[in-house]
Amino acid sequence: MIRKSGNRFSEKIMLKQKPRAKSRFNLNGFRSSVTPFSRRRLRYLAAALVATAASLIIVPALADKPLTVLDQPTTTTVTAIPIDFDRDNPERKEFGKLVFRGGLNLYAKSSYFGGYSAMALDPSGTTLLAISDAGTWLRANLDYDGRKLKGLSNVVLGPLLGAGGKPLIDDADRDSEGMTLIDGDTKQGTALVSFERKHRIARYPFTQQSFGPPNGAIPLPPGAKAMNANRGIEAMTVIRAGKLKGTLVAFSERLIDKNGNLQGWLIGGPTPGGIALQRLEGFDITDAAALPDGGIVVLERRFRYSEGIKMRIRRVAASEIKPGALIVGEVLLEATDSLNIDNMEAIAVHRRASGETIITLMSDDNFSALQRTLIMQFAMPEGQPVAAGMRPD
After folding, report:
1. 238 contacts 269 by C-beta, under 8 angstroms
2. With bands split at pLDDT 50, 70 and 90, how would you rate the model's confidence at 388?
3. Which of 391, 339, 380 lies closest to 358, judged by CA?
4. In this model, does residue 34 exceed pLDDT 50?
5. Is 31 helix (H, G, I), strand (E, B) or coil?
6. Among candidates 130, 30, 115, 19, which has minimal Cα distance to 64?
């Protein structure tokens, strides 16, 4: 995840979306009519704007995870504001190889709402279960207007419980990043949850009113000890079909192998072993989700001070997933913050009754007032996959 850490303390602030409209104020155009006094005022104004910008970097950097924890589940109301993926052209619906089905900007008065790093949907796409990196969970109904997301209802927030049955409190213990269901559904079942800082994969039974305590753990794969404390296992999903059905696929956020690619693992199943995702243009991995055909989709992110935030979705065919493989995949969508994105960290997949496969994304707002909790959906293409970097015939 991207967060306050050492000399990267302001990194999460820089994820704030840039202004979309270009300024029409041009000093050259007013040069002949600006008096020396007004030019001084403009200089003072510019200095004030710089000071304000600096304060926006420093003060929100102090905004972090809640200092207290939920001691029990609580209901809250979420306000949902519809968004377009292309704010300058709301009629545009096709992006890369995906079709935008709708999105929402979510607000809640609870200080525990936010920071969502992983999620799961039920097969109908109407019940959401998400975890945050502050050691909390969210369950809600997704409401639709036809095929378009309309809002969240029946929203419940609760704490992830530690081994002793009490809420996780310490940041080093509660930094949950990845989640995948291994049985049941979003209302009751068992999930695997990955944590960074204290790297581990814990097995969590859950019901509608509790999440944990854990009743076991999955041993970390060979090589995982080399992970940075702040970049652990970020993405996990269980393959749904094919020869590797039941295999856990796990990726670190940015563990680079000797060839510069992103390290991952196949855990359990018939053929466990290491895998690698070809690293394209410096993107890191934030989440993954299983497809009905035995493949997966991978959510990626890139941040640079000079260019802001980017995201990418890659589809990986089932035939590419095997021990020792260098996975290339097919780029379905790549977006900069000229489109309506934020720090996109969570991805889930479900299939509508019509047969249409839907990708749902959710953002991690880092509990910052300068970021947003977004949820959005895209329809997948049904054609043949194409390798990343190649063009279809």
Report:
1. no
2. low
3. 380
4. no
5. helix
6. 115
Note whether residue 253 is domain-resident: yes
In a domain? residue 339: yes
| Mean pLDDT of the region 122-127 | 96
pLDDT given for residue 241 in this prediction: 96
Can you give 243-294 as a three-state secondary structure string? Answer: CCCCCEEEEEEEEECCCCCEEEEEECCCCCEEEEECCCCCCEEEEEEECCCC
What's the rounded Cα separation, in Å, for the pair 102 and 323? 37
Contacts of 369 (CB under 8 A, 6+ apart): 60, 63
Closest CA to 234 of 328, 124, 117, 313: 117
385, 315 Cβ separation under 8 angstroms? yes
For the stretch 83-102, pLDDT in tens is: 999 999 999 999 999 999 99
Q: Is residue 298 part of a domain?
A: yes
Domain CATH code at residue 91: 2.120.10
Inside any domain, residue 384: no
Q: Which residue has the higher pLDDT, 44 or 120?
A: 120
Nearest CA to 386 out of 95, 100, 93, 97 is that of 97
Using CB atoms within 10 Å of the CB of residue 5, give its burial: 0 to 12 exposed, 13 to 18 middle, 19+ buried: middle
With a CB cutoff of 8 Å and minimum separation 6, the contacts of 144 are: 126, 150
114 vs 47, more confident:
114
Residue 369: pLDDT over 80: yes
Q: What is the enclosing helix (H) or strand (E) of 236?
A: strand 233-238
Amino acid at 248: L
Give the Cα separation of 175 and 108 in Å (integer): 21
Range of the domain at 292: 74-379
The pair of structure tokens assigned to 238 is 């269980």
Is residue 186 a contact partner of residue 206, using CB atoms and an 8 Å limit? Answer: no
pLDDT above 50 (res 192) = yes
Q: What is the pLDDT of residue 2?
A: 58
Q: How many domains does the chain have?
A: 1
